[in-house]
């Protein structure tokens, strides 16, 4: 009913109610007039599925229209459709790439990797270890040796990580 | 799997939802959403054996990729620009639409769906394509009514399939529990519970089939049960239960017919065909699951097997519990540190002495483990053989439980003994350690089942006892029951005690982690017994269904109370592939062998069961074919039986064809591996070329700048300087062309 391919109707309805629950005063129950409503990032980030995820801010930014984290219903459904079990691997890899690309330049450079590792380890690793890790990752995954990961490098690497499909998945 | 037809319906319905008009100019950020997948996915993706639909959509993706890549490159050159050349985008959009129009609606939906665009854009794209298509179709003649009929039939079929799958997803068991488990423990522990649910589906299906086709007809011709009911029957399976639908011996061999006009129901044929149908469905379902897992998880053994990249990019998004996330982050840091230190230590070579010690340790461990397995089998066989005399001496009806008790003790103690070998042996990778442990455990369990089957089929079946099939059924029931009781005790008591002990000495032991391998092997063991036992005890799937149900809740509660999340990354998908393979290869094939021997070689008992009096079980089929051959309407069945199923030539030719196809696919795989390697080298070379050109360009620009500053005074020297520059540039381009031609030659080799 909302045009989301990977989710069936019951789940879409459930998602709509979840969206509505986040901001009942903002989101009308009647969507036939297609109101231009955006739920602010703070409410999205407080959802139980996302509130402890280290990448919740990036996820919201990637799926929102303007990159600021405020999501319309379409963005919301898009997000859960891509993060569902049924989304194809390429779609997931593409969005994962965007999530890990912190500076939005279309490549995962060393700075993006540092940000990723810091978020993943919550400051447990020293700065030297972090840069060592980034070096190793670039050494392993950078196919054309230009010092940063392009989308192709990332997808190539994902092909060899079959766990990716099951871990890049948010249950709703 | 959510089908494309459902997608079709949904997008069709989405047409009716008025959507906001998408502005023509899309901002820079969303331009990246137009980049699709890589174009060499056809080569590197191991799913390339897939159906033509995928190939078509990949071709489309490749097509739009090349368009969009050039688009993206223009963007990279001007990162600061806000607007885009809308006419350029429109041309490319129209090309995309033009390529989508000739596709069938299924392919179109697939292609649109796999585009990484927002939903608004996908909806608009579909609208535009449909508008263009309807413009074109005015010129096409109407379908003739045959095609229209077929169309409506297929649509009705698709709709019913949709509603059925929706219904199935509504009654999908335990969705919420899975979410909680995944949130706290991650996908690895979840894979065990998934496996349990999957086995439950097998059992539910077997139960429904046997219930409808064997048990219900038997209920309509009941025989009087004269035995006494005492409570002990639940444990021993004997006594009152002997004369119920639970066991083979109760079933009639007659043709059930109610009234003179009712259809005759041949119990013999029903029994053998029902069991056969259950097994065939299980076989194909296992085969397809295994094939699907292999295809999705095919690993090209590459540098990433021990790599750090997977740790970084495969963060488990399903973990949602706050404490679990913190713990996972801590564990990830530890693992990263270990990985870094491993990479540093990788280059340390062991001395000859140390290598020898390691080899000896491995050898000793293998000898001991095999010896223990053989000793256990001998013990089981010895006890089984002497069981009958033992039972005669001890009149206690509970004495029959001794053999199952011993088997369950072996199953409990020996895997833990195998885990202790870890202290002596040192493995290069933890993955190899897990695999070897699994192989040893499965060897033990399968040998025990094997020795028991040998005993049952060779001794019990030919001892001339009254109703040997029922006896075997009772044995299997007792084994399963004892195994279930031991698992319950282990989960409820053992793990609880372990947690108490762990909390008393907090520093040394700590909380335990869920041992996925051991638990999955227990499930495989129980399922093997159920498959063997269904022939002798048709109610066994029902019993296993109940026990799996209870096990789920018990394990869940124990998990929440006594365990901590796993500290090491566990390759869940690879492991699941291996488990399903184990379920297929030693387990299910062993079951098929056992049942084949039973049906073809053993003599049914003379007084009980549906096959009483026949020389072999298979004679029921032979006599059926004989009766059919006398009826003129069914001669085709007889023909199929004699020429396809009964004929050796047919199987020989079939095997030959399968071998040829396998060989061809193998050669294709090898060729593709070579192609991957060459393309990888080419990518590296292209990267080097790019760096070379960039350096060259920088140098030239430098020189030009210097030349320009001094050009006001010395123009003649400029002319002299630029010409060698041009020559150098020409040489560089020549080098590049030469290198490229060398690379292009390589794939042709």
Automatic annotation (TrEMBL), chain A:
Pfam families: EF-hand_7 (PF13499). PROSITE patterns: EF_HAND_1, EF_HAND_2. The keyword Repressor does not apply. Keywords: Calcium, Magnesium, Metal-binding, Repeat. SUPFAM superfamilies: EF-hand. Residues 88-123, 129-164 form the EF-hand domain. This is Calcium and integrin binding family member 3. The gene is CIB3.
From TrEMBL, chain B:
This is Transmembrane channel-like protein. Pfam families: TMC. The gene is TMC5. The chain crosses the membrane at residues 198-219, 269-288, 359-384, 396-413, 434-457, 528-554, 574-597, 645-666. It comes from the Eukaryota. Residues 467-573 form the TMC domain. It is a multi-pass membrane protein. Coiled coil: none annotated. The keyword Thylakoid does not apply. Belongs to the TMC family. Keywords: Membrane, Transmembrane, Transmembrane helix. It is found in: Membrane. The lineage of its organism: Eukaryota, Metazoa, Chordata, Craniata, Vertebrata. It comes from Felis catus (Cat).
